[in-house]
Amino acid sequence: MSKPVIAIIGINGNLGSPVIKQLTSPQFKDNFSLPIKAITRDASKKLTDELIEYIEINELNVEKYVQALTGVDVVISLVGPRQILDTLAEALKIAKPKLYIPSQFGTLIADGEKVISGVVGYKDKHSQRVRDEAGVKTVDISTSLFCVPGSFLYELVGCAGYDRDTNQITYIGDENTKFGTSSLIDIAKVIAILVSKSNYQDIPNNVNIYSDITSQREIVDHYVGTHPDIQPVKQLPNIPLDEAIVQVKKALANGFSMKPFMKYLQVLSAAGEGKGLAFIDNNHREYVNPGESIFTWTKYP
What we know:
Helix 8 (241-251) runs antiparallel to helix 9 (258-271). This protein has helices spanning 16-23, 62-69, 85-95, 109-115, 121-134, 184-195, 216-225, 241-251, 258-271, 285-288, and strands at 5-9, 33-40, 52-56, 74-77, 99-101, 140-142, 145-146, 162-163, 168-169, 179-182, 206-208, 212-214, 234-235. The longest helix has 14 residues, at 121-134. Helix content is 33%, strand content 15%. By secondary structure, the protein is of the alpha/beta class. The protein is globular.
């Protein structure tokens, strides 16, 4: 049986380097036909070698994506902008890979949309379009919140209710409600494990994983404990969950902006199990990494 040909679209975001590193690592690279195809908007500073072939596509052109993806078995999308999704969907109809992993990483969208609709539901619609119109096996990977030392959940903690400008904390609901966190390395390893499987049709359409669990309180406590130079933090009264949902819907009604999006994530983390960022009782950690036999899940902090 021939080894699958892998293509990655969008390599300059948070997951680009970790995914490439894992796919080309000694642990996984023998599972694939090398080089991995890496499609990027600017390949001028990239060096193709025996592990990675860089392909430049800097416009939303279906024909160019079809050309790059023809003969590819697995397409992994790490792109952020939603504008590219229509182009990808059309290209996948023609290129017909055996497996498509779209850029879902984060909330379990179907559950999150039940709490606050209209924020990221377009991603689920894209996945379903590829399944229905292209007939391509499409696997959405939900990871809850990224956990990155020096960045997400360490320095960027607005999703836990801390306001750096005012040095105040405003929790939503119960600040001890648990939800998931995932390290970028763990996410990349999960992707490598899934695309290494012999039968893609057996993979669930939704794969929910997390590295560890935490809470609003634990994130803020860790931040404060590692920043002894800041003044004592003032905790404001908690906002009831229902009230916060109304506030976020109103704030996002006129389009995306970062501050209300952080509050959106805080609402989902406070909403608890089955509401988008907590799938502690409904996950596939054992499916992808039984008994931690392939790797050890990263702990937070």
